């Protein structure tokens, strides 16, 4: 084998090809880089989906914690002022609906 990076090689007796210093024949290099790019795009989309889902689950967890605190506070407020029960429920329900909308739209 020659040390010349542009050496003429023959894969069979009829088809001579030129070896390039960047590796492989031009056509196969092109196909390989296209495959690598499409695989990289698939991996990137998967990583983005994973991050989005992780963020969504973190938001849901925080919203559930906040709802638990709001519910506990509403229960305490109800004990001191039972006539405002409907207002307390509206506050908790309003927060829950808003949090759900933000999580779904993320």
Describe this protein's structure.
The chain is mainly α and 106 residues long. The protein has one domain. The chain contains two helices and two strands, in the order E-E-H-H. The chain has helices spanning 26-80, 85-105, and strands at residues 8-10, 16-18. It has a two-stranded antiparallel sheet with strand order 1-2. The model has no long low-confidence stretch (mean pLDDT 80).
Write the layout of secondary structure elements.
Layout: E1 8-10, E2 16-18, H1 26-80, H2 85-105
Antiparallel strand pairs: 1-2
Strand content: 5-15%
The biggest beta sheet is recorded as: 2 strands, antiparallel
What order do the helices and strands follow? EEHH
Which stretches are low in confidence, meaning pLDDT under 50 for 5 or more residues running?
none
Structural class by SSE content: mainly alpha
List keywords for this structure.
single chain, 106 residues, two-stranded antiparallel ribbon
Question: What's this, in brief?
Answer:
The chain is mainly alpha-helical. The chain has helices at residues 26-80, 85-105; strands spanning 8-10, 16-18.
């Amino acid at each position: 084998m020659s040390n010349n990076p542009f050496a003429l090689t023959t894969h069979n007796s009829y088809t001579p090809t030129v070896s390039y210093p960047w590796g492989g024949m031009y056509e196969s290099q092109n196909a390989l880089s296209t495959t690598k790019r499409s695989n990289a795009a698939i991996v990137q989309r998967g990583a983005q989906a994973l991050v989005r889902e992780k963020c969504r689950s973190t938001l849901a967890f925080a919203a559930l914690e906040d709802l638990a605190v709001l519910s506990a506070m509403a229960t305490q407020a109800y004990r001191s002022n039972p006539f405002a029960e409907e207002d307390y429920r509206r506050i908790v329900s309003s927060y829950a609906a808003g949090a759900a909308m933000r999580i779904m739209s993320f």
